[in-house]
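Re: the request from the purification team.
They wanted to know what the chain is likely to look like in 3D before they choose a buffer screen. I agreed to run a prediction and write the result into the notebook, where they can find it.
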Amino acid sequence: MNICVYGASSNAIDKIYTENGEKLGQMIAENGDTVVYGGGAGGMMGAVARGARSKNGNVIGISPAFFKVDGSLYDNCTEFIYTETMRERKELLENRSDAFIVTPGSVGTMDEFFEIFTLKQLDKHEKPIAVYNINGFYNKLIEMFEHTINEKFMTPKNRNLWFVSDNPKEILEYIKNYVPTKTKLTELKSVK
């Protein structure tokens, strides 16, 4: 299975994040799955890739060629795809993946998460989405989603479109055992 992992590229983040990212990459590889990600050498991206490669796992990096400066891309991927644009990168990440894990990150990670979540909401894919909530990083985002539901901008059924855990084993079990449930678009959009 190809598992897309979204995450930060920053090397300034606390080690609690990168250590857990590396552990996630190792576990993906130990399960015989492939990491598909944005190709970065630093932050969560690099940690997941290094973790997977440390267990001889396959890693597919996908990045615009303009990021190929100053060692910002991980050069030990088993496959690397260069794109012209960020849009092309996101499309390939989506198309080459069977599941998605969102690790802590900034604006780019949030953009990727919201796009893949929205596409699932619009019934454009039925792939599992999991949020790896290391150190409670996404607690405020989860609160925001609850606020959105409480204020009737989104129905409670939207909660079923993603899974949240701070445990990588739970996340990988969720992905492995995931069974798509067909929810009508009207059920996700109709707020009463």
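For the purification team: The longest helix spans residues 15-30.
Please add any questions underneath this entry.
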